[in-house]
Design a protein that fits this description.
Largest sheet of chain B: 7 strands, mixed
CATH superfamily of chain A: Class I glutamine amidotransferase (GATase) domain
Shape of chain A: globular
Strand order of the largest sheet of chain A: 2-1-3-4-11-10-9-6-7
CATH topology of one domain in chain B: Phosphoribosyl-aminoimidazole Synthetase, Chain A, domain 2
Number of strands of chain A: 11
Structural class of chain A: alpha/beta
Radius of gyration of chain A: 17 Å
Order of helices and strands of chain A: EHEHEHEHEEEEHEEEHH
Structural class of chain B: alpha+beta
Oligomer: heterodimer
Helix content of chain A: 25-40%
Helix content of chain B: 25-40%
Amino acid sequence: MNVEDINICILRIEGTNNEQEMYLAFKRLGAKPELVHLKQLTGEVAEAGRRDLFDYQCLMIPGGFSSGDYVRAGAILAARMKSAMKDDLTKFAEAGYPIGGICNGFQVLVELGLLPAFDEIMTDCPEACLTTNDSARFECRPTLLRHENKGNCVFTGRIPEKDILLMPSAHAEGKIIFPPQERGRHLQRLIDNDQVVFRYVSPEGDYAGYPWNPNGSVYNIAGICNPEGNVFGMMPHPERVFFGHQHPDWTRTNKENGDGRAIFVSVLEYIRGKF
Amino acid sequence: MLYTRRPLPFELYDVNLNDANGRQLKEISAELGLALSLSEMKRIQEYFTKKNRNPTDIELQSLGQAWSEHCCYKSSKSILKQFIFGIDAPQNLLLGEDAGVVEFDDEHVYVVALESHNHPSAIEPYGGAATGVGGIVRDVVCMGAQPIALADSLFFGPLDLPHQKLPKGIKHPLYLFSGVVAGIRDYGNRIGIPTTTGMVAFDDGYLGNCLVNVGCVGIAKKKHIIRSRVKRPGDVFVLAGGRTGRDGVHGVTFASMELTETSEEVSRGAVQLGDPITKEPLIHACLEANERGLLNGMKDLGGGGLSCVIGEMALAGGCGANIQLDEVPLKEGGMAPWEIWISESQERMMLAVDPKNLEEVLKIFDDWDILATAIGIVVPEKTLRLFYQDEKIFEMDLEFLIDGPTYCKSHRIKKVERVGQEEKLFKEPQDYDHVLLNLLSSPCIASKEWVIRQYDHEVRASTVLKPMQGIIGLQTHGDAVVIKPLEASYRGLALSADVNPQYTKIDPYWGSASAIDEVCRNLTAVGAIPHSFADCLNFGNPDKPERLGELYEAARGLGFVAKALGIPFVSGNVSLYNEGPTGTIAPTPTVLGVGIVPDIRQCITTDLKGNGNSIYLIGKTHRELGGSAYSKLMQAAAMVVPRVDPCVLKKRMNALLSAIHNGLVLSCHDVSEGGIAVCLAEMMMGGDIGANVDISEIANLRSDYKLFSESNTRWVVEVKRGMADEFEKTFEDLPLFEIGEVGGNKLLIADDRELIDLSVDDMRSVWKKPIYDYMG
């Protein structure tokens, strides 16, 4: 399909607050993004406002603090989605439509069981957790990510393996952990399934500790996808570095395009080719 | 009997004002927590005697709010009128509203607001600071503007104060600092508005009364700007947002008194509770309703709650109102009508809606799961009436209620000792390296990264110059941040907030003038044209003539420079009574400056860029060490604070801007605390590169004065190799000194002899750590 026909559903509820910049990222590339309140998908609004998930070719869950993140980051939005649209979500993911979550959106996808989703498209219980940063502080800082996916993830098809990209992090709960007894096995499955997408590195390219790994994530993981590659979540913010002048050091480097742009280009290219 | 309860199912008292004598009037004011003076009580008595009845408790409470210093600026208005208001400038589009409205481009305006939340933060730092952010965001939203950036200026007592020295009833600066930062962080991050700039300063004077000044900038289409007033009789008052509770009762009267040892126990209930996850959708809903043209007026509920907002909106539209107080959605049962009327519960907005649009407006709020309730109607006569369960409990003429008293209280101007005794007191140091390292690690100069990185300073993805600048992982402080507010335009807004309380403590006039100079320097350093100011004037008890004298001098200093530059104050706030058991604060006129960047792609950061580029100093260095970081370090009393000459400032800014816009400048940093030495060190740390500098030509002064004096209107600039001639031409007859070259990994400074030889790494390690060490 043509890029101008691609409808992107950008989900919002109270507290999601990165939707505008994500909307703009898709708009700039010629697609048709729409900001859609959860209630529009679950039928809790007047007829004219209702939307069907299958009107869209891609579902994006933006960053922010959905419902205040008061229970655990992403938990409330995930519970609301699961109770009202579990079947739709499963079918949507099964059909190969991309689902992306940035920052809080990543937390939501993990809470939903759509990531890492080793054995089924959506697990009943979360298999991982994005928990409080090791520093116990909110960390807003530039982070460097090495792209380590070997071609599975549909959101990074345009990014060469091993490339290092700058994308800023801004979160208090971004440390991915697994149940202690499953830690080794889960990590191995992520690697074997080509589910690891981005890992935090230092400017020298090392898998360094804080502050390059801003949260203490296991294996320096910054972003993962499901085994099929069409559900993807990452903590750092590609939508904040669409243009060169959004990079924190642009007065030194003078880039025209930002490093985050490739994420949006990649997923649109995948949709164009597949549907 | 002073109070008679009416036989009603709810609590309402008639207050026997008309028979009360002077002592009883004072007693009533104290018992009801009105904070009104005897003469004010007498004025009220006279009004009700004429009406031939006694007031109800809710009427008196309403007057206590409306006539508080916080709401009607009764002590400061005459001074502000004389110096601050009315600087003639075409960009200033709309005056007298909750926020300043200033032209951005042909189609858009930016909106600026700045306010203090000092007393609540001193009692409950987390909630006080969070609701400070909430309040200032509402001030911007109620103009119909999308908030795009927050700025916070924070002032605390010394972090290293031993706990046993902490006076009774005072909270430790470490506790206040961490609580305030957490409050701003959790509120700002959750509503998704970037906290981009501000300042943190420490001084003994803030021990008993910390200052939290919060600013917000928004952007709107000109056609969407909405007034804080009703349009016509028949308009419906719609209360939108959070429920009303007992939190924040008597907030404004609490803000209009000195803090005491017992403030915590007595006034804890005056601090409101913030709820960012009601605020976030409330912003969306208000802006959507406004952009669809469904609103006639909008105003936020701040100090004084409903009691202020309804009267002010109605009177501004030349009307009155009938309000059904029992329609107000409550957090808890059993609230007396007066509590509902003056509660300052957060996250509430008042809308004036044409009845034909009412249904549509309510639907928008319902879709966002936000409460919106019609609570009253606009009437033609300028009278405000309240009804509660069919009982009329309030009826007053709005002009009497709203137009509170103003005073010309007496002020006394302290004579500033201006004798230059420095040379006797200062012994020239032997070890300059040691001095510079000590300056870099002093809390006021040391890295504020601990604060900055807890705030999401780039949500909305439009912060194109960030607060930390330079090579990632090695960043240094920037002078100003730059926001690119519009998708389709490269035009930007630069923001910087500043004041140096060490100067204003010695000399409120020149200290305040210096604050304007510094803000202008910061804006110019990134390539922005200074365009407007907001001021937040924090002072002690205005009933003491010397405190009011400080306010007078500060306002005079601000006004003098701003007027000469032709840059208006578009928004402001006065916070008085900032004193407690430990004494008064330093006079603290915080200035938030906004600049216009014609094209953000030309912006300049502070980090040095590369080998072989020339380093220039713009401006003259004088022996001005009063209030300097150096004099504090040397524990020597220097009394001459830096002077400002607005004509000189204007000329140098114009020359620097033209050099930046012509692409000659690679990095630029203003010279402020710690003088040239600290300025150079900060530029080097961000670029991770050294410099070889010679200061022998810059002035005929002792070396330490040259290096550490804080004379205004100076910048250090890195100029592209091969562009030096063109750069120098731009400055023709202005003072400009080529002082060195970028290169190596050390800061080498020489005068007639070698003074400083320090590696960039050594400087960074002492500069970066101190605040982390205190705060963890």
